[in-house]
Amino acid sequence: SAARNLATKTLRFGMLPADGIGHEVLPPAQRVLEELSSRKTLPKLEFIPLNAGFEYFRRAGVALPDETIEVMKNDVDGAIFGSVSSPSHKVTGYSSPIVALRKHLDLYANIRPVSTVDGKVDMVTVRENTECLYIKKEELDTLGDGSKVARATRQITQNASERIGKLAFEIALKRDKVRQSQSQCSSPHTEPSVWSIHKSNVLSVTDGLFRESIKAAHKSDERFSKVKLVEQLVDSFVYRMFREPQLFDVCVAPNLYGDIISDGAAALVGSLGVVPSINANDTFAMAEPVHGSAPDIAGKNIANPIASIRSAALMIEHMGYSEAAAGIYRAVDEVLKGDKVTPDLGGKATTTDVEEAVLRAL
Length: 362
Ligand code: GGG
Fold this sequence. Notes:
The protein contains 12 helices and 12 strands. The chain is an alpha/beta fold. It binds glycylglycylglycine. InterPro entries: IsoCit/isopropylmalate_DH_CS, IsoPropMal-DH-like_dom. Keywords: Magnesium.
């Protein structure tokens, strides 16, 4: 249906650079999509700038204006979010806009693939995106002796866990199908697997429910029996991820573990600057580079735009434009094999140089 829509449809994307280098890495992603549109690999495109972020909060007193939420819910086919610099201390009236957006749009999955061009690493983290400690029910009390105690509620539900589990198995099947269809496949995987990441030996109630729900998801569909389910405690997962990264195919985790392990996985591929993600539900995807706002390099035109470009590719792939997405992945891989790379990868290229190199390689 994506192909049928090419001639007639206009796709509208919300653009939310938010903070820091978000403003520098979104324009290259937009230009890559525009290039594909001009070659008719994608339909006509419209990009709608939207406000969000800590910088906007400081100017306007709100981090995620109602108008942004309305447009995201009703007026766009997808969106690209940059990066946000939420302060690490409490600021009255401020709340992280990315966490809120995921909730408002029920973007229940955060999908973060990492791979190396030599095919030694090829894994994807499928992170539950709506609950766990990120429901942000925190409280601070003062005890009788005057000292403080802080508490946070961690919510794990059967429904959210089974939902993310089913998606993980679907992704494992899809990745296996893509591998089978490639004549020269450089992936380390010979069979599809889902690794269920938890800490149920200590948190037997919350992580215990997550673990059981992933098992139930595995049994919920006959097609999933083709996928091997492997259990892994989160701490030993981190150890093994650095020692034997080639083992891991699809890794499904509750929100906080997923956040941490997917940033760690970025170390396997050289830089956070190349790692993409989408926040997705079954009908909508919001692209988001995994890196943060990097205030130390903001405004210098040296931020790596590859994570943002790859995130845009994941978004259009999720929308059904697999061929256009594959073209972007190939172009990026070609650029990464050369020496035109930004300082995070040891090179001297600027953001603009990398954007131009990707456009040339498309
Ligand atoms: N694009 C990922 C990103 O912005 N990471 C920083 C982050 O997660 N910050 C959390 C927040 O500021 O709320």
